[in-house]
Each structure stands twice: as C-alpha cells, then as structure tokens.
Amino acid sequence: MISLEKLRELGIEVKEWREVYERPGRDPFAKEAEYRVSDVFWGKFHLRNDGDLYVLVISKIPFNWKERLKDMKLKGEVVDAAGGVMWIKEEEEWLEQDFKTLRDYLEKVKGERK
Predict the structure, then answer these.
(1) Taxonomically, which superkingdom (predicted)?
(2) How many CA atoms lie within 13 A of 58 on its CB side?
(3) What percent of the chain has pLDDT above 90?
(4) Quick one: DSSP state of residue 60?
(5) C-alpha pair distances (Å), 31 with each of 15, 38, 93
(6) Measuring CA to CA, how many Å separate 92 from each of 30, 47, 55, 63, 70?
(7) N or C: which end of the chain has fewer CB within 10 A?
C-alpha cells in the first residue's frame, strides 16, 4: 500500500485511508485517501483491492485538461479528463514524478493567469 508518510514528505497533505463500499452491507472494494497539493490541486488516491491505483486530480484553476494533456509528460495513463477533473491510472513508483509534473505545470498555468 502507498505510504502516506512518503507522500507527506513530498509536501502533499494527505488524510488517512478509508474503506470504500459499492453498496452498504457489501465488502469494501477499495480504499481512498483525500489529498491536497498547495493551492493548485486536490483529489483522492483510490486503491482497489486488486492493487490498481487511480488518482483523481481536481484543478483549482479553471481550464480543460483534455486540451493540455499533450503538454504534460505523465507516466500514468489518463483514463478520463473533462473540465478541471482528471483520473490517472498510476503505479506507485510513478507518483512522485507525476505529482511534481502536475504541480509544476499548474503553478505555471496559475502564473500565466495573473
């Protein structure tokens, strides 16, 4: 499982893991932890019981991710992007680099808008 401490060392504010249920009364199918990166984006880590890791990224800067994906060099696979919301299928070893890429990119966009 992803180390929340390691994420915190990267400057990511992360809440504790909580179980996610498809429906009440069913076994959990995943765990989620909410996160925030400075004042540019926030979202959730979604870790399925089968080991698949998805990251929800919600930009605080209004723009459409789809139009800008070609500008970013993410290692994870973008599985959905619309408006300021994006889902990335990640591998744990890619998280640090992809989060740096996202933070740097969004801070650049934020600076351009001033």
Answers:
(1) Archaea
(2) 7
(3) 57
(4) S
(5) 12, 23, 18
(6) 16, 10, 11, 27, 22
(7) C
Average pLDDT over residues 26-55: 95
Residues 6+ apart with CB under 8 A from 52: 89
The answer to whether 106 and 40 are in contact (CB under 8 A) is: yes
Determine contact, residues 34/48, Cβ cutoff 8 Å.
no
Quote the CA–CA distance of 17 and 91 in Å, as a whole number.
Answer: 18
Residues 91, 98 contacting (CB under 8 angstroms): no
Task: Give the pLDDT of residue 30.
Answer: 97
Q: Give the H or E element holding residue 21.
A: strand 18-21
As a whole number of angstroms, the distance between CA 22 and CA 29 comes to: 7
Total residue count of the chain as it appears in this document: 114
Domain boundaries along the sequence of the chain: 4-112
